[in-house]
Design goal:
The complex is a heterotetramer of chains A (336), B (280), C (154) and D (266). Chain A is an alpha+beta fold and 336 residues long. In chain A, a hairpin with a 5-residue loop joins β8 and β9 (168-172). Chain A starts with a strand and ends with a helix. Chain A has helices at 8-20, 98-101, 104-112, 118-125, 175-181, 209-217, 224-229, 237-241, 286-305, 315-319, 326-335, and strands at 2-6, 24-31, 34-39, 65-74, 77-82, 91-96, 127-132, 158-162, 168-172, 188-190, 248-255, 258-265. Chain B has 280 residues and is an alpha/beta fold. Helices cover 23% and strands 30% of the residues of chain B. Chain B has a 7-stranded mixed sheet with strand order 10-9-8-7-11-12-15, with helices on both faces. A 6-stranded antiparallel sheet of chain B has the order 4-3-6-1-2-5. In chain B, α5 packs parallel to α6. Chain B is globular and about 55 Å long. Chain C has one domain (9-147): 3-Layer(aba) Sandwich (Rossmann fold). Chain C has a 4-stranded parallel sheet, with helices on both faces. In chain C, β1 (11-16), α1 and β2 (38-43) form a beta-alpha-beta unit. The longest helix of chain C is centred in the middle third of the chain and has 19 residues, at 80-98. The radius of gyration of chain C is 17 Å and the shape is globular. Classes of the chains: A alpha+beta (336), B alpha/beta (280), C alpha/beta (154), D alpha/beta (266). At the A-B interface, β4, β5, α4, β11 and β12 of A face β13 of B.
Amino acid sequence: METKYINISGLEQWFDAISASGKRIYAPVSARGQVDFMPVKHLNEVAKEYIQTTQSVKASVYPKAEVLFSYEKVHGKVNLTDFDPESVSETVLWKVHPCDAAGFKPLSAIFNWDTTDKLINAHLLKTTVVSYSCATADESCFCTSVNGSPGNVSGSDIQLTILSDGGAIAEILTAKGEALVALLPGVFEADRGDKKEKYLVDLPAKFSLEEVNAKLNKAFNSTVWKEQSERCIGCGACAFVCPTCACFDIQEDTHGSKGRRIRCWDACGFALFTMHTSGHNPREHQSQRWRQRILHKFSYMPERLSVVGCTGCGRCSRACPVDMNILEHITSIAEQ
Amino acid sequence: MSEKNIYLPYLMTIDKVTKEAPGVKTYRLKFQDEAEAAAFDFKAGQFGEYSAFGEGESTFCIASSPTRKGYIECTFRDTGRVTSGLASLEEGSTMGFRGPYGNVFPMDEWKGKSLVFIAGGIALPPMRCVIWNALDLRENFKDITIVYGAKSVNDLVYKSELKEWTDRPDVKMVTTVDPGGETADWKGEIGFVPAIVEKVAPSSENTIAIVCGPPIMIKYTFPVLEKLGFKDDQIYTTLENRMKCGVGKCGRCNVGKLYICKDGPVFSREELNLIPAEEY
Amino acid sequence: MSSNTVFEPKIIAFVCNWCTYAGADLTGTSRLKYATNVKIVRFPCTGRIDFLLLLKSFAQGADGVIVSGCHPNDCHYTSGNFHARRRWIAFRAILDLMGVDIRRIQYSWVSAAEGSKWADLVNNTVSEIRALGPYTEYQQVADYLEKGGYNGEA
Amino acid sequence: MEKLRGRAAALLADGSVALIIGYEEGTKRPRPLFCRNSESTKKLIFDSRCINNLAVYITKKELVGKDRIAVTASISTLRSILQLYVENQLSEEKLLVLTVDLNGELREFVTFDEISAYVAQFELKRGEREQEILSKIEGMNREERWKFWLGEMSHCFKCYACRSACPLCYCSKCVVEVNRPQWINPWPAPLANMEWHINRAMHMVGRCTACGACGDACPVGIPIDLITRKMMKDMAPEFGYIPGQPAKQGNALSSWKLDDREQFIR
């Protein structure tokens, strides 16, 4: 790990060098009244004034729909074509917030515990994450309550902290980060000794994870689930904007004798998610599905995978049509 | 070596089709790739994801015994998109299989004990795997009792094997059908499975009871077993939640913190007591 | 232009069993010649034709669609075509709002006696669609997974 | 506000209703509140910021059970309630409707006729954003419209918030969940998304009450409410409906007239 300084024009030149290297760059772009990760070519396309992108960056390593393999039926036989890791392009994720970058660890934990997932690993391998530490936050943000912070470097290959002169402290954290710097090393200067902490938003923790965990261990039969979920309308918005939600469906796309098996996003909040063919549904009520969502993130994942399934990005709260505010709900569980 | 794609199925040839009951078929499957066949191994209780190319995947147990090498069998009812796609395949066609997944019945620990198998309807297949496994290693176990019931005579699966088990002197086989489901020449019992278990009254002494069936049957059979003196660690069952991946990632089969696909499908009643019953 | 460069549109016709299918049959038995671009799918009634089938046709490569059934008041099931008419009025408006090329869907009433009308309908539709060219605009979108597909990348 | 809270508390106290669905202050704007006891009615609010359509909850059996319930309703919610009634989803015996009128007076509706008469005073207004996007679309040619919607649809990730937020999407199994045949591919992709939204619009023809809940709910900001709203406006005169009023003569696509007009069938 090495810390450097890069000035404002250096940033632009470096970005152009990355762009010219042929790597795809996804960065937050402001369009249609929202800010979201989109392909960009120049630094001036990147959104400036905003707190959070609507969607997390997870789609870059875990696409909304992806072909697991394809097949062709020929004379009663079936030929399979495996997913090709080489088909994945080198990608740079630019201006990722620490809460988003922190999401790669739980995401990878879900996909790689016990057996490994070739697809997400192919994406992760070819992805370089350039994160920006956070100078601003809003009332939905709570990274500091879930082991994160506005300057957390987990999941980042390089973290930039933008200084008042428009330049940045560049923390080069991994070999991938170094490789990205190597595209234009000349623009990186020696560390000037700027204090990173000075540029980070102050976000006091709202609850203690240990306390929540202890409460949740005894909360399965609590009435809290019904109380909190009454207004939940059972859509998948919270899951789909979440940086760590990974539930998926496997579907078939068939055209004549050819076809593809597809993995696509799914959500535990959907009524039919766990429905058996017989019609029996173990999570029949919205309250049970809400409980699954919270327990999975804050109890099951910490216990089974040693990671918390929440990075405190607050996207679910912002996206929810009926204001299911996760911070408020978790805080109230912690205070019970 | 490049990373294995866990979603890529083995290609299997349907070697033999057996019609078991209305809408219920058993397929014997052989690996198309010899190396895959040689490397493949499983234990009683495990399941897999079976695919009909063009329709998708469906989850069932491996219904054949691991003692029978060279093939696997699955038994399924034609109920949805995938199972009807599978049902329309013929002998010689290709289908997909991923597995084996999940945990196993602890048959090694059961050595020297008596076994009581209690099954209802289409839940005999997971049990059949264990039954044949036990019968093929008959000397390892003491008494073997099988109580199997279905809605009607027509709905009983593995009819020829039921006969074979009935004819064996070293197996106590009791077959029953629900009242009204009998035929004129029906020689078995008439009544619901829990009542028949109570009537047969197997001894709980040094015995393991394996119960598979619809939730309602399990619900009423457990108290009967309790009355007969079976402790919770003497009773085993399998859970079947909806699954897509089979490898603990897709998020469907959680019961509390457990994944049915990884920590199950086999559970002792002792283990079941620790997880929320409403989620299965 | 040589004959092999002329664009031959693929056209799917959804027709009812009682009027238009019989009408198309009559076209044949009357030995009337008409374009061979059309593939006929027979339904019990126009009221039974799901609107999504029309879109599915385009997604799977059709350049044009014909929907035809009994004239008003002639429905074998009394009111199936009246229901269908309402459905098409609404469907056409939605498609137009979404920017689907509604010129590629031709609705008609062809009775069992109108063999020549069927021939004209097919011939006219084929020439109109031929003039419009292949519906690649729609077909291109049908295969998206190959392109990765990220936010805003259609 | 005090009148509403007082009345709500009284209704629960004397057992007239078992549940009152209303609004409370939320994080950024008011959100739905479920009052089952007098204490919780203290949180009730009702003003122009209350935009969630509460009619979406009154058909959910797991919430309302078999009891009589009350709901505080905005004009949009009232319109949805009327449409639900026309579709035989509600009964007068099980529902008490409360609203606060323009003079700040608390109003109670016991019958659907009363609601109908009340709602008839209000003209269906077009919002600024709706007007803006509609004018934009109206200025486009067909190819531009296709590109515009395809671009919008490419953002849809099929969370179905539009469906969940809509009071009239009460089917227990939606067409997208039917898999024999699989009408619409269940994964998010521009064409499958387009098919889904066209389908939704078709299922809403003559039923949509233009509350805009689907558009408000969309987390990725697709103006999907425009499709159903515009359809409602355009189709109402065709089929003899009054926009914003329930289709008493039956739903547009399950009824017909001899003289339905069209110019496109040859």
